[in-house]
Amino acid sequence: MGESEKALSPPGRGLGEGQSQATPPRTDPLPGPLPGGEREIRAALAAAARGLADVSPTPRLDAELLIAHALGITREALLLNHLDDPAPDAFAPLLARRLNHEPIAYITGRRAFWTIELAVGPGVLVPRADSETLIEAAIEHFDARPPARILDLGTGPGTLLLAALDHWPQATGLGVDASAQALDYARRNARDLGMATRADFRLGDWAAGIEGAFDLILANPPYIGMHETLPREVRDHEPGAALFAGEDGLADYRAIVPQLAPLLAAGGAAILEIGATQADAVSHLLVAAGFAVTVRRDLAGHARALIAA
Predict the structure, then answer these.
(1) Residues within the annotated binding site for substrate?
(2) Residue 238 shares a structural domain with residue 126
(3) Directed axis angle between helix 132-141 and helix 159-167, to 10°?
(4) Helix axes 59-71, 91-99, angle to 10 degrees
(5) Gap between the terminal Cα atoms of the chain
(6) In what order do the strands lie in the sheet with 264-273?
(7) Which among 2, 146, 247, 265 has most CB atoms closer than 10 A?
(8) Alpha helices, DSSP H only, in the chain?
(9) Sequence ranges of the binding site for S-adenosyl-L-methionine
(10) Domain CATH code at residue 144
(11) Residues 157 and 299 grouped into a single domain
């Protein structure tokens, strides 16, 4: 990830050197469905959204997801059929966690990404919509010839690899991560999605020791500088090893780029996520390694991915 804006993306990595410690838990009274009155889900949602307005850019959505999780139903089912039901007792403790800036994905244990849903939790980078830009770029690049073999460097809970395998059902792939905890989630997600025979996962240091030729290499490395300011839900909760990359946020690109060419099959491409201000710096590294580089922008118009071929 790069620049603080990567971390700001709503539905990433614990504290890094130079980051402040976690803020003490919030102890002020929570908004309803709480003591004294508002007990129906409709009213509870409104009260919770008011309380979350200073915590989240999507307070109403957060409240809906939390109540749906408390009920064990989908958000759609909640909105269609349950707004006049009593608010569940389990909602208040979930709301308290969100008011203390814990990511929604950690509270619910799930995060939608591209066409799949992933299990996530503490110690794992929360997948972000910005990263879907890499999948879009890959689909466009391989429009005429689907990739047969895919490598995902820094796979986390399997985010990019499993999304790519879902799009290309004949492909197989390898995901590499330095976190055993993240790889546990990745293997679980592969099993849950029916991809366990197509996706292999390995503990490793980027592409060190990897052999073979891959049609598509995907990478979403840490790209936040050590002294950048982060929102509390990222700073206090997500793992720093998945966020921070040296003083300038480029340390992991310097490690990854020299490893790419020997692993790319003829006609293949490497697609790297970048921070919004890093296109020139990372492109320079790729061009120096012999690649032609194309920039891909996200929905907000920020440079978000580099395609190296």
Answers:
(1) 220-223
(2) yes
(3) 40
(4) 140
(5) 21
(6) 199-203, 172-177, 149-153, 214-219, 264-273, 303-308, 293-297
(7) 2
(8) 3-8, 41-52, 59-71, 75-81, 91-99, 104-108, 132-141, 159-167, 180-192, 232-235, 251-260, 279-288
(9) 154-158, 177, 206, 220
(10) 3.40.50.150
(11) yes
Two tokens, residue 84: 């006049």
Q: How far is it between the farthest Cα atoms of the chain? A: 67
Q: Could you tell me which residues are annotated as the binding site?
A: 154-158, 177, 206, 220-223
Q: Is residue 214 part of a domain?
A: yes
Express each pLDDT in 282-297 by its tens digit.
Answer: 999 999 999 999 999 9
In the chain, which stretches have pLDDT less than 50? 1-37
- Predicted model pTM: 0.87
Cα atoms in the Cβ-side hemisphere of radius 13 Å centred on 64: 14
Q: Which domain holds residue 119?
A: 114-308
* pLDDT, tens digit, 9 for 90 and up, residues 139-177: 999 998 999 999 999 999 999 999 999 999 999 999 999
* Among 100, 122, 140, residue at a domain's last position: 100
